[in-house]
C-alpha cells in the first residue's frame, strides 16, 4: 500500500513540513575571507533561512586577530619561516577570547538598529536583513566578524557564520 492510502494527504504534508523545519535556522556568509582598502566601504554578507515567523535579532560581533595579519599580508611566506603546507594555517584565529579583543558591533531587529558604544558615530548599519555595512574602514577594523541570528522560537541549527576582514593600506 502507498502512504496516500494509509494516511490522508494533509497528514503526509504535515509530516514532511515538520521534518524540514527540524533543521532550524541556517546562517551562511558569502565570503569567509575579505580584503578591503583603508577608508573604503565594505559589506560583509550574511544570509539566514528559518521556518519561524518571529522577527530575528541579527548581531554582528568583532574579534581581533590573535596575531597581526596586516604584517603577514605584506611578507613572503618564506621570510616568515612558513612552509608551503602551513599557508592555510589558522593560527591567527586560534586563541582564547580572553587574549584578544571581543566586542559586539551592532544588533538589529526589523527596522531597529543599535550600535555598540565603540562604533557610535561611525557609518555602520545592518542592511538586506543581515549584511553588515561599514561605510569607512579604519585600521582597527581588521579581524574576524561573526554574524549571529537569534530567533526566539528557532533555537536549533547553525545560527552563526564568520568572515575574516583584512584592511589594507593605500600606497602612492
Q: Describe it for me?
A:
By secondary structure, this protein is mostly beta strands. The chain has helices at 3-6, 9-21, 69-73, and strands spanning 25-29, 33-37, 42-44, 46-49, 57-63, 102-109, 112-115, 124-127, 131-134, 143-150, 157-158, 160-168. The radius of gyration is 21 Å and the shape is globular. One of its GO terms (biological process) is pancreas development. It holds the Pfam family V-set. It comes from Astyanax mexicanus. Keywords: Signal.
Number of strands: 12
Summarize the main sheet: 6 strands, mixed
- CATH-assigned homologous superfamily: Immunoglobulins
CATH architecture: Sandwich
Overall tally of domains: 1
Please state roughly what percent of the residues sit in beta strands, choosing from under 5%, 5-15%, 15-25%, 25-35%, 35-45% or over 45%. Answer: 35-45%
Indicate the mean pLDDT. 83
Distance between the termini: 76 Å
Order of helices and strands: HHEEEEEHEEEEEEE
Question: Class by helix and strand content?
Answer: mainly beta
- What is the overall silhouette? globular
Give the helix tally.
Answer: 3
Strand order of the largest sheet: 2-12-10-5-6-7
Signal peptide: 1-24
Domain Ig-like: 9-149
Pfam family, one: V-set
Organism: Astyanax mexicanus (Blind cave fish)
Compact overview of the structure:
The protein is globular.
Amino acid at each position: 500500500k502507498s502512504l496516500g492510502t494509509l494516511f490522508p494527504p494533509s497528514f503526509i504534508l504535515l509530516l514532511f513540513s515538520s521534518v524540514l523545519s527540524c533543521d532550524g535556522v541556517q546562517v551562511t556568509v558569502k565570503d569567509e575571507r575579505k580584503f578591503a582598502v583603508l577608508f573604503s566601504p565594505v559589506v560583509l554578507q550574511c544570509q539566514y533561512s528559518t521556518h519561524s515567523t518571529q522577527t530575528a535579532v541579527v548581531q554582528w560581533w568583532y574579534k581581533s586577530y590573535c596575531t597581526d595579519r596586516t604584517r603577514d599580508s605584506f611578507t613572503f611566506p618564506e621570510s616568515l619561516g612558513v612552509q608551503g603546507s602551513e599557508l592555510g594555517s589558522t593560527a591567527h584565529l586560534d586563541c582564547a577570547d580572553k587574549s584578544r579583543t571581543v566586542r559586539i558591533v551592532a544588533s538589529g531587529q526589523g527596522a531597529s538598529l543599535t550600535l555598540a558604544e565603540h562604533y557610535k558615530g561611525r557609518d555602520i548599519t545592518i542592511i538586506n536583513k543581515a549584511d553588515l555595512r561599514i561605510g569607512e574602514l579604519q585600521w582597527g577594523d581588521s579581524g574576524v566578524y561573526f554574524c549571529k541570528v537569534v530567533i526566539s522560537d528557532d533555537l536549533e541549527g547553525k545560527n552563526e557564520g564568520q568572515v575574516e576582514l583584512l584592511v589594507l593600506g593605500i600606497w602612492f
